[in-house]
Amino acid sequence: MLLRVLVLAYGVAGYALFLATFVYAIGFVGGFLTPTRLDGPREGSLLAAVAIDVGLLAVFAVQHSGMARPAFKRWLTRYVPEAAERATYCVLSCAALLLMFALWRPLGGVVWDTDGAARVAVYAAFSAGWLIVLWTTFLIDHFDLFGLRQVVLFARGRPYPPARFVTPGPYRWVRHPLYVGWLTVFWAAPTMTAAHLLFAAGTTAYILIALVLEERDLTAAHPEYEAYRARVPMLVPRLRRARPLIETRRTEVTP
Ligand SMILES: C[S@@+](CC[C@H](N)C(=O)[O-])C[C@H]1O[C@@H](n2cnc3c(N)ncnc32)[C@H](O)[C@@H]1O
């Protein structure tokens, strides 16, 4: 009973940490209100700042993709109750992000800048990106992704039926709409600075690698994934095929 309560408290605390990290990330990337931000003037050596930023991105990439692999999960659950595995993944993902937010070194330098209607459009895309990210988590299974479903079922003494493979809404147009949301957030910068460009390029490279690993696991776990992959594009929706022209007979009209 004590273990159930402890695991539940841990999962709830982990979810609260995720919410706080998510809100901070909006300010950090968008440059609103948070004490540390992606963009800003550079302090100190350029080489040291770039090395620190690349190192922080690498720490997140290794943690986030490494811990998502089934082999790592099997190893972790030798020490952590199975119900707390996903919550642990989320807590450590938040820790890697918070480390990045705390130690990130802005680089100065403007790559592009927008104003007027273009700036409004870029902010609209940035906001849409965050909404897509949040929305798609609910389409898959929000509370399962962040480990809350697992700890609640464990606390109630219920078995855990693993999350199903689903293809609702945007999953019919692309296989990775959540990553489309992230890419939109990272590239929709009204003022693109050198650090923001490094961050956007690094996270894009990471997403492209991560989704290959994720698809390998999805194919192994869900037999229907292979057919889904053949039918639905990865990130860019297919334009609808042009409808065939209907042949019409020309008729001579005499005046
Ligand atoms: C951060 S989510 C990203 C989901 C997806 N790659 C996307 O961009 O929308 C990663 C988790 O979602 C799961 N997942 C990916 N596609 C899924 C689908 N169509 N149905 C259910 N779970 C999915 C993966 O197994 C993984 O645990």
TrEMBL record:
Q: Does the keyword Transmembrane helix apply?
A: yes
- Into which family does the record put it? Belongs to the nurim family.
Annotated PANTHER family: NURIM
Instruction: Name the membrane topology term.
Output: Multi-pass membrane protein
Protein name stated in the entry: methanethiol S-methyltransferase
InterPro entries for the chain? ICMT_MeTrfase, MddA, Nurim-like
Q: What is its EC number?
A: 2.1.1.334
Entry annotated with the keyword Membrane: yes
Q: Which reaction does it catalyse?
A: methanethiol + S-adenosyl-L-methionine = dimethyl sulfide + S-adenosyl-L-homocysteine + H(+)
Q: Name one GO molecular function term.
A: protein C-terminal S-isoprenylcysteine carboxyl O-methyltransferase activity
Main location class: membrane
Q: Which Pfam families match?
A: ICMT (PF04140)
Cite a GO CC annotation.
Answer: membrane
What processes in GO biological process is this protein linked to? Answer: methylation
Please state what class of enzyme this protein is.
transferase
Q: Where are the transmembrane segments?
A: 12-34, 46-66, 86-104, 116-140, 185-213
Q: What does this protein do?
A: Catalyzes the methylation of methanethiol (MeSH) to yield dimethylsulphide (DMS).
Q: Where in the cell is it found?
A: Membrane
Note the superkingdom of the native organism.
Bacteria
What are the protein's UniProt keywords?
Answer: Membrane, Methyltransferase, S-adenosyl-L-methionine, Transferase, Transmembrane, Transmembrane helix
